[in-house]
Design a protein that fits this description.
The protein is 61% helix and 0% strand. The protein is built from 10 helices and no strands.
């Protein structure tokens, strides 16, 4: 009996689906279309084996500025092959991965940058961005405070708290995080607002 009921139910579902499809096909086109961006493609020649690490890094910077992110990554990785442990290269690679929305890979690069330079303020700041995007607000605060501690004369770190980021795909965070009306978000919001990083905002020129 149960098997029969299942067969009948399946027939009803299939019949409903067929009717819905028929109704859609009979309906005039509404003009609604899904727009997707073309996938990232490489635009330039691969890195030269004979190029120095500095040359490769410089070329990577140029390509990143031109938004040729995959090519830029190729050059940064090639530079790292010649200059292992270069924290600034890991940081640049991480930024490029972040711009490609590859958050996991970006985090690994920032963590490697910090591994080779524990006081690398930019890498701590950028890792904080990753944590924010993953809604790990407590970790974001810690990384941001490490960045401030490592270089407390950088107004750009503080300004990220309340001003919009220069890169639209990377939101401002910490002090400027939106408050949602639920207990967990309220507690996190209060913690952020009372953090030493946010308190330092009062010392900055507007």
């Amino acid at each position: 009996m149960q098997s029969r009921h299942l067969i009948v139910a399946a027939a009803v579902i299939m019949s409903s689906a067929a009717c819905a499809a028929s109704a859609v096909s009979a309906r005039p086109h509404s003009g609604e279309q899904v727009q997707i961006s073309p996938p990232e493609v490489r635009r330039t020649e691969p890195p030269s084996v004979s190029a120095s690490a500095d040359e490769l890094e410089g070329r990577g910077d140029t390509l990143r500025g031109e938004k040729a992110y995959l090519d830029a990554l190729d050059y940064y990785r090639a530079a790292l092959a010649k200059k292992p442990g270069a924290s600034q290269l890991f940081n640049k690679a991480g930024i490029t991965e972040l711009l490609l929305h590859r958050f996991r890979e970006a985090a690994k690069d920032f963590e490697r940058a910090i591994k080779y330079d524990h006081d690398y303020a930019d890498a701590h700041n950028n890792l904080g961005v990753i944590h924010y995007l993953q809604k790990k607000y407590g970790k974001a605060i810690k990384e941001y405070e490490k960045a401030i501690k490592a270089r407390n004369d950088s107004a750009s770190f503080y300004s990220n708290c309340t001003r919009k980021s220069a890169t639209p795909s990377i939101p401002c965070y910490i002090c400027g995080v939106p408050w949602k009306r639920d207990t967990r978000e309220l507690a996190m919001y209060s913690r952020m607002r009372n953090s030493p990083v946010c308190e330092k905002m009062a010392d900055l020129p507007s």
